[in-house]
Fold these 2 entries.
Entry 1:
Amino acid sequence: MTLTETRTFIERLAENVSQVDPLQLSANKIHILKRMVFDCLGGIVGAWRSGELNDLVEKIASTGGSPQATLWTDGRRLPASTVVLILGVLGSHLEYSGSDSAVVPAFVLGEVYNRSGMDVIGAMVAARDTGGAITKLFASEYEAHKLHWPAQTVAYSTTASACKISRADVVRTAAALSLAGCLTPVAPFEAFIQGAGVKNFYGGWGLMLGLLAEQWSSVGCGGPMNLIEGNRGLGQTWLHRAITTEEVNAALPFEPSAGTTEEHFKYFATNLSAQSTLTALEDLMLANPSIEVDQIEKIEVLTYDYALALSKDSPGDNRISAQVNLPILVAAMIMNGEVGPDQIDTTHLKDSKLQDLASRVRLGQYPGASGDLRRRSRPSQVTIFLKDGNTLSTLTNDPRWGLSHPASDSELEQKFRRLVGSSIPAKRLDEVINMIWRLETLVSIRELIECMTLS
C-alpha cells in the first residue's frame, strides 16, 4: 500500500509527521517546547493536588489492564491509554494550562518505548504541526457550531504524536489520522458553560483516542484518505460545501515543523475568553491600589462578543462554569487580588460578598470587537464607577502572557513551582526543572518521568 499520487489533506499531514526531524529544529523552537512542558505538567499536578477529581481518577484507573506506563500523580502502572486519559482529565480541570495534546502522549509513549528526550521533542512537534493544521482548517467552523473547538482537534494531535514516537510509517500514520478524525467526538460548549463534569474529558478523551488510533492502525484499521475532501467528508460536514485547494494549502505547514510556534500561556485560571478582561482589571487595580469593595457602585466590562456570549450563558455556580463567567471572575479578582485555582473553588464561589459584587458587574460589547476565530481581536475595557462619583477605566487589547506579551521563563517556572507546591520535595523539584530545561540531552525520558512522579 502506498500513498496516492494526488495527495489528500490527511496524506499530506502524515508526510509532514514522518518528515519532522528534531535534529533540524532551531534552539528557539526546542526552547518553546520546554516552556510548554512546564505549563502542562504544572496544570496536571495542580489539579491532582486539589483533590477534586480523586474519585473520578480512581474510577477510571479501576478498569485495570496491562501495566504499560506510569501515572505521574501516584506512580501506579496502567495501560498507556488509561494514563493519558487520566492526565488529560486532570489537565483540563483547572483551565490553567495547555499543550496537553503535545506533551502528554509524547511523554507517556516515550516511557513505553524508552525514547530519548529528542525523540519526545520530535513527537511534540508532530502534534503541534498537526493540531495547528486542523485548527486553521476547521476551528472557526467548530466554534460556529457551538462546539469546544480544542476538544475537536486533540485526537489528531495525539495521533500524530503517537505515530511519531512509535515510528509508524507514513502510510500507517495517514490511516491512523483518518481513523482518529472519524471517531473524534462532538464536544458541545454547553457542557463547559453549565459546569458539567464531562468537560474535563474534553482533553483526556482525545488523548486516549489518539493512542488507540495509532494502535489500531497497526493491524490495518484506518479511515478514508479523502476524509476531508470527500463528498461526504468533514469538509462538507463543517463548511457545508466542498473545501477548496486554497483552504487546504493555507492550513498545512509550509515545511516540516513550521507550525511549532509559541504557545499562549494563561496568567489566570480561566478560559481564554476572560483573560483580557482580567488583565485590564489587574492593570486598573495596580494603578489604584487603594480601591475598596464597599466604595464600588458598579463595574462595566466591554469586551468581544464571543466572551460575552459565553459569560451570559454561564450560571457561574461551580469551578468549571465560573471559568467563563465574567461577573464572578471580576468579583473574585477585586476581592482576592488574583484569579488562580484557589480563588474560584467552591468555598469562594459561595461567598455572599463575592456574589453581591458580581451582581454589580455590567457587560457590553466593545465597539468593533467581533469576528470569527480566524480574525478575532480580544479587547476588553473595564470601568469602575465609585460611589463618590469618580470613575477608573483602562483598556487592553491583548491578555497578559498573550503572544504580544509572552511570559518569561522565570514566570513560567514560578507558576510551575506554585502548582506543584510541596507534592515534590524541593531538592527533587529542582532536579525536575533542570531536566526539563535540558530535555534534548536526556538519553531516556524515563529518567524525567521517574523524578517527577509524585509518590
Entry 2:
Amino acid sequence: MTLEAPIRSRDYLGPCTDTRIWDRFKLRPGDVVLSTPPKSGTTWSQAILMMLIHQQAISDRAIWKDSKWLDCNFRDQNELASALEAQDHRRCIKSHTPFDGITYTPDAIYIAVYRHPVDVYFSLERHVANMNSDFLDFHFAESPAENFSRYLDNSVTDMGTDDLTLASLCHHYQSFRNWAHLPNIHFFHYSDMKRDRRREVLRFAAIMGLDPSDALIDAIVEASSFGQMKDVVRMANRPTESVFANPAGFFDAGTNQKWLGRLSQEQLLAYRERLSDMIGRKDQRWLEDGSTKD
C-alpha cells in the first residue's frame, strides 16, 4: 500500500538530537519547518526566512534567534517548545532530523537545504575543532585519512544526522526526496544560495506566499551576506560564554570545494563510488551542485 502522506515513523536519539518532542508539539498552519544536515546552510537559511517573516532586513541576531531548534538534545526541549508556542508571529522551526522523524501536516511548509557532501565533511571537521566541549570529538579522533574513511564508510544508525556521515546525509536527503511531489516540500542548495542569493531569497518568499517589495528583497540579500552573518555572530557572542572557542568561526569560510589539495585522487574516487551506491546519478549531481528546482 502506498502512503498518501508522510508519517512520523521513527525516533532519532543522539548527542545533539532527540526527536520525541515531535509527539507533543503541535504545528500551526503556515509554520515553516527547516530541516538540514548539519553544516549545510541551516543558520543562513534561518536568517533569511526570519527576515522575510518579520519583514525586516537588519544585521541583528535577535531577528532570527527565535527560530528554535525544537529537537535539540542538549537544551531543555520543554523550554524550546514553550518559546515557540508563545510566538504570535509565523514560526520557523529548525531541525536536523530526516523527514520520517518529523511531524507532517499539509498546512505547514517544509524546507530542506543541502550542500556538497565533501564540503560538509570539512566544515564539520572545523566546526567540531572549534567547540569548547568535546562531546563530538570522537568523530575526528583518528588520522585525517581514517576520519574521512569513517565519514564515507559508516552506515546510518538511530542517531540520524548525529552520525555525521555521508550515509546519514544521504538518508536525510532521500527521506525528503521521496516526497518531493508534495506541494509543501521544497529543496534549496548552498551553492545556489552562493551563486544567486537574490533569486533564492525570492524563492523563499514565494514558497511562503509573501510578496515583499524589491527594496526589502535587496536589503535582505545584503543583510544575509556571508560577511554580515559572520559579524553578527561575532558581536553577539563572547568566547567565554559560547559553545565555540571562536564564535565567528561558526560560519567557517563560506567556501565550496574545500577538498582541493586535501584529498587524494583515491579518496575522491572512493567518495564518488560510495555516493553512487546510495543515490542515483541525477540526485548525485544535484546534491553536489544544486541548480535543479523543486
